[in-house]
Amino acid sequence: MEPRNKAELKGRILRLLSVDARISMQDLANSLKTTKVNAYGLFNEVANEYGLRFVPEISIDKLWKWEFIKRARLRTKRGILAEAVEELPLTGFGEYLVFVKFVGKKPADEEIVKATGSSYAPQFMAKTKGEYDLVIYAVERSYEDAVRFTDTLSKNLGKYRMLAYTMRVWGSFGFFPLSNKLIEQFDIFDTYKNLLFGLNEGGRNTFTDIGKHYNQGPAQMLYAYDRLARTEILRRVTYFESKPKNSYGIIAVVKTQSEGEFENARERWFVKLTKDYEKRENECVFMCDTPSPKGLVVIADFPSKSAAGRFLSSMRSSLKGAEVNSMQMGRVLAGGLGVRDFDMRYTSQYKRLERKKMVPSMAQKMPETPIENPNAID
Question: Given CA atoms 49, 53, 56, 57 in this order, what sign does their dihedral have?
Fold first, then answer.
């Protein structure tokens, strides 16, 4: 096998695993046009090289469905109607970005980590260079809870002067690996929660092994997987790289100045990204919409400062009607980025562009019954 061809096959494996990390060795071999034994060897080589961690990608904004269903099961129809207004605000979670600027002396990394206390909210936290010194991706029940988390952080760092900004965001691309501490807060049926715990520990583990750990059978785990996938709470099992090749991260903050101009420009920019990433590795890690100021935040990872600069230049020239500012990512203090080479055709943005006939149509895969052991080669 020529080195160039091997590199291409590895890239193909990463892209396939990004949208379906439980792909069987037979399907992987078919896609690579090789044998199952060769596919298995390449899979293990890629997994070790990039330190792949297989985890569930969960729709934060759709969790309220199963939380509400669980609570409704305990009530009569009349009770559901009577208490719906009270229950709905208590179900579900939202995504937040917290930006912190220290004025004067800055706390040590260990002090910042300790200041978050026992909160389940922070899923990712990293130092930054630029307008702010710290960024936190947090998941909370409400905006008020997110602000309380930020206030507690400020109080615990009381001997330092700091400005903190809590922003409600709506993720539109990419993901952050979620902590077990957060999953524990999901008020869903135990079988569903146990499945998510099991997938978080090893997304390619067999349903038998996952069920055994929680004293449940494989059929229960399989049913839970099917229900969560079909209701789109479990978007997919995917991966993130614990040993990524890229090491220069940025956060681009886009503020809209002309809404009509910006919306059209953003669609054209995403079409350009999709075409670019057909030929090379996807650099974008996470994108989210922001309401105030209206715009978006993009987190991306690059092999060098110059590559990041080219990306930002392209953003600024493409996104008419908006201002683009950036910060450099520094040391990660908690959690991790969901770095992966994702196939852009499986994004919500692509579906929207598809409806507008701005990109080629693609037949979306319907949820399939997942196999028991994706690693089997016999």
Answer: negative
Q: What is the residue whose two structure tokens read 């028991």?
A: 372
Query: Alpha-carbon distance 56 to 176, whole Å?
Result: 10
Distances from the Cα of 17 to the Cα of 42, 127, 243, 294, angstroms: 13, 30, 16, 33
Q: How far apart are CA 207 and CA 212, in angstroms?
A: 8
The amino acid at residue 107 is P
Average per-residue pLDDT for the chain: 91
Question: Under a CB-based contact definition with an 8 Å cutoff, are residues 262 and 308 in contact?
Answer: no
112-165 pLDDT, tens digit per residue, is: 999 999 999 999 999 999 999 999 999 999 999 999 999 999 999 999 999 999
Question: Is it true that the peptide bond before 293 is cis, omega within 30 degrees of 0?
Answer: yes
- Calculate what percentage of the chain has a pLDDT beyond 90: 82
User: How many CB atoms are closer than 10 A to CB 252?
Assistant: 22
